[in-house]
Specification:
Strand content: 15-25%
Number of domains: 3
Number of strands: 15
Strand order of the largest sheet: 6-5-7-15-8
CATH class of the largest domain: Alpha Beta
Distance between the termini: 57 Å
Shape: globular
CATH architecture of the largest domain: 3-Layer(aba) Sandwich
Number of helices: 12
Order of helices and strands: EEHHHEEHEHEHEEEHEEHEHEHEEHH
Largest sheet: 5 strands, mixed
Amino acid sequence: MRFHRLDLNLLVVLDALLSTSSVSLAAEKICLSQSAVSGSLARLREFFDDDLLIPKGRQMVLSPRAETLIGPVTEVLELIRSTILAPQAFEPETSERTVRIMASDYTVQALLSEGLKRIGRLAPGIKFELESPGDNILEPLERGSIDLLFSVESHLSAEHPSQFLFEDDYVVICCKENTQLGNTISETEFFRLGHVTVEFGRNRFPAYEEVFLRQQELRRPIEMVVPSFLIVPGMIVGTERIALLHRKLARQVVKQNQLRMLESPIKIPPIRQAVQWHRSSDHDPAIQWVVRQLLRACQPENLEDTESTP
């Protein structure tokens, strides 16, 4: 079918090319042969009067014109999927949707592990695919490769809807056998002892608390950098190192390890955890239902239940 000279079937190929910057990967993504995708790319180049994919070294990159098409193409296809192709009514008990989520291991541990269990009891056919944040957390959302993005509010996009979930502050964790500390930790001790901290992705993006400390021009002695919050406890046990950790996560890990939790002598603003979805998913009843269920899981009594679970 053509619309103003554009074969609308090409939109699916274009979306795959924009999300992969590769003919072979696009072909694999939409289950077509490479020759078929190459032919479609030629037709797209003719229609847009632009190369769309440009060779750079041994790889292909998007042209400036192609970059501008990412959002509109994704939005059009997502709108078609969630409205025209979606069933008239969403029935959680019988739905077999797959929901793609990007979230840190902290969010998974503090919220999703319990929240998704609750959803599983109500909608056993819904499947979830979880992935860790990369260097650019907003790109997968813009490209439509994820349905829900969990992050602190300040990292989310103003272009898409979001829902605040909960606040969490910071505490210090240390080994139970740490002879350098008593039942409290002073500011002097905080800046004297070695720290474990978390950085994300290939660009080593620092965690929120480290960003705050740097902004305040506060420098702590960092002895170890790890790529995951859940690795931190193992790097503390049996050492005199300490770490700043979210309270909700700290309450869980101190029960499973030989650790203690102390009030932080440095007052760090609490994080405001939120979930975001592409604006086209405002019309997707399945995504909105999942968000509502996770919001219910964030109610104080439910979070307390999660934190008390051994």
